[in-house]
Design brief:
homodimer; about 300 residues; alpha/beta; TIM Barrel; 13 helices; about 10% strand; disordered N terminus; disordered C terminus
């Protein structure tokens, strides 16, 4: 096959949280609504079913339905990066095949994250078997490096080996390590490899280093600000825009990310059910929620005019 | 309901590895054969689908089939502890319900292990929702504490809260922390709670502390020796038996557990396919395999007369 596949765009991506009804089933309509809001308010693309999306708290069946419903709701599939990496390779294969059938822009693949201290040979074998079993030249894999959560880092040696073996398939990564040196080194060692920083605080630095954008939980809030950085990142005022992004993100990131975000989504939408999440995650405590609202207000970044209706 | 449910026996349990064919599908016949061998050679019961069984590398469908086939093959279900804890609660519910339908002696439940630094409230909610959704008085839950692998420890405060809320359901635990103080403290603080050490090296100590047995990967090899400890652990020669167990385990535990065990199973059975495993785990390198064989031979504990046929 020689077809040309349009790659996932660069730029500002939000890792979207998954709204849930009071019985903790997925609220598909609200997810589509929020996704549209993000694409209209600064996001170039969206990560669905990542860490922020509580993907690993959903069954394979639920993950398949979520993507089907989102695409059926006219969300542009090519602007979606879909998380499909599981502990069990048969699950990763099933979800990746399904994401491809939905014509998404790319899949984001966590390494299997139960066994720790595994070898690069073992991790290589996982990605290799996945690619062989999918057997589809349209496959575009983004590696998901998030060692604090997965407990399984993806080394530069492993990335280089995968890119050498599958240059048209292993095309990029989301680096959520928070380790700037690691991101910079990847950009330097692998020109053309599409590196997204896992935080919008590194948006300008990673663009300057040769990366392509950011994919972040807090971008659900900061997307309109981050978009100003991306729109003209060569311009002199890009640093001022980046400083503003960092200020707002800084107010949020001292709280547990997913509870804080779901609280802020609830405030913005005026809908308490946005705070629902599956255990082991728990909603933000009311005191912390009030504190977070106050901090954002002090930064003149109130989340919602309707927030007073919700308390 | 007031039915009396026979509890899982105490004593020596092996966490059985899952044999796989060359295409990495489960070899059900070999699993049943090995399980019978263990029950005839020192094991009081078996853990199926634990860490050693590569449970998290199998899909829910594969896990269901594995248990169905094992029970259909006349293995005594009441002597089986079945691992059913997943990251996604719907999966844990489905597997637990299925294990109950197969009338197993108990289920071993990992906490959801993707999200780290979660609260005891969040973990309590997971077990609480599981128990409520199962809604069956026959349910017997054993907590699975293996922080080095799961990244999610189970605190004494959490255990006590669960046991207070569900005294007939949350009945015991497997403590694979390797932390003797933690095991002893659990036995002291929760009399009647059925604590299995995650290593047979603590078999005698935990019986003396009030625990009920051990569940271990290396018991696949040491079961006949561990059984001598358990058979008469009040007798004066129990310590000598325990010392012999420790000596053999010590030779194995310096290698990566699952690759080492699968190598030893291959040697004992004279069947190279026993070494197959799913990535990210990889078979023991040949040099390490030779070294391990030599160490066991020096301890006068050769694995198999047929081992020379396999090299």
């Amino acid at each position: 096959m020689t077809e040309t596949v349009k790659s996932l765009p660069g730029g500002v991506f939000a890792a979207i949280p998954t709204p849930m009804r009071d019985d903790l089933s997925v609220d598909h309509a609200l997810l589509a609504e929020h996704s549209r809001w993000l694409l209209a308010n600064g996001c170039d693309g969206l990560l669905v079913l990542g860490t922020t999306g509580e993907a690993n708290s959903l069954s394979v069946t639920e993950r398949i339905e979520l993507l089907d419903r989102l695409v059926a709701d006219d969300l542009p599939a090519k602007r979606l990066l879909c998380g499909t990496g599981c502990c069990a390779l048969p699950d990763t294969v099933a979800l990746t095949r399904h994401a491809l059938a939905n014509d998404v822009g790319g899949v984001l693949i966590l390494p299997p994250f139960y066994y720790k201290n595994v070898s690069d040979d073992g991790l290589y074998a996982v990605y290799d078997q996945l690619i062989q079993q999918i057997g589809d030249t349209r496959l575009r894999i983004f590696l998901y490096h998030f060692p604090q959560m997965s407990g399984v880092p993806i080394s530069h040696a492993l990335i280089e080996r995968l890119v050498r073996a599958y240059p048209a398939t292993v095309v990029g990564m989301k680096d959520s390590s928070g380790d700037w040196d690691n991101m910079r080194t990847t950009c330097e060692r692998l020109p053309g490899f599409r590196v997204y920083a896992g935080s919008e605080q590194y948006l300008l630095p990673i663009l300057r280093a040769g990366g392509v954008g950011c994919i972040s939980a807090t971008t659900n809030v900061t997307a309109p600000l981050a978009a100003r950085v991306y729109a003209d990142w060569h311009a002199p005022d890009a640093e001022a825009h980046q400083a503003r992004v960092n200020e707002v993100r800084g107010a949020i990131e001292s709280y547990s990310a997913i509870p804080a975000l779901k609280f802020l989504m609830a405030e913005r939408r005026g809908l308490a059910s946005w705070r629902n999440m599956r255990p082991p995650l728990m909603p933000l405590a009311n005191e912390q929620a009030r504190e977070l609202s106050a901090r954002l207000a002090r930064l003149r970044f109130p989340i919602s005019a309707r927030s007073t209706e919700q308390s």
